[in-house]
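User: Could you write out the 3D structure of this protein bound to iron/sulfur cluster? I've included everything you need below.
Assistant: Certainly. Input first, then the structure.
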Amino acid sequence: MPQCSAKCGKNAMLKRPKTGDMLCKECFFEAFENEIHFTITRAKLFKPNTTVAIAASGGKDSTVLAYVLKLLNDKYKYQLDLVLLSIDEGITGYRDDSLDTVKQNRDDYKMPLKILSYKDLYGWTMDEIVAEIGRKNNCTFCGVFRRQALDRGAALLKVDYLATGHNADDIAETILMNILRGDLARLNRCTSIITDSGDGIPRVKPLKYTYEKEIVMYAYFKKLVYFSTECVFAPNAYRGHARMLLKDMEKIDPSVIMNIIQSGESLKVNETATMPSLTKCTRCGYVSSQEVCKACILLEGLNKGLPRLGIGKSSKAKRILQENSPCCKTQNCLCNNK
Ligand code: SF4
């Protein structure tokens, strides 16, 4: 084995996927943690004496995020109160097991944990939703509901920030997907390290520039407990293609991940392009780019036996709903004729 390229005098144990540097374990840990600290301080992600909810799934990203945030908070005196926030989608054989891992994180890292379930928030588990709609659009329901559930949890906990475990590979994949879909609004938002959730609680991504392979390596060498089983309802086909493309390109040149992120950050949207503005859903009060948010439309469809409502154009959804609903007397009606 060659010597560690950080010149610490030890033998190198690994090759950093991001830079190709040959490092010993300790120098890798230091480089990995310092980069996240640099990301946090350069973007001024947190103000001192605030509370941060860490969106915790029990997977490698959120486990490493919780571990490293705690470590940096102690080391650099960020003065943050850290709490874990988990969403139980109600997926048997997946989320029930991964929540056990989150509970282990709670005990190991000594952080309070709040769990919110789809069943309590929406009246449906993902198992029930899939039984109703099948396996084609399940991730649309799950993603929309989870996003809002995290916002609800953050508001409930009265935190100042919601930190998510999105890593560099996730961001690059999302940039690729949004380019392929021509979705300018999302392209703009997905590159931001801080996004406004609409209710005044910013979402932040401390792992934005951290490679997935390095997160796995860090968790492995630190012996962190995380859950690695894939969701029984995966894959989300479209993201899966973007992921495969990125992984193939990363084999040729690992810098493609950073290059895509930097390209996404530098893209300027043409001023003539129509961009949806964020507002509050007139039904539930949470952030939405429409009068009624996607979560409320999807939920309405489920409750009215029209599960495809909300899959596709929202104007079509509204028309279908008005045609099919006795409305006006129905709780959660969308027709606005009350
Ligand atoms: Fe939800 Fe789809 Fe992810 Fe499973 S794969 S947790 S259904 S978004």
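Residues 89, 126, 138-139, 142-143, 231, 233-234, 236 surround iron/sulfur cluster (CB under 6 Å).
User: Perfect, thank you.
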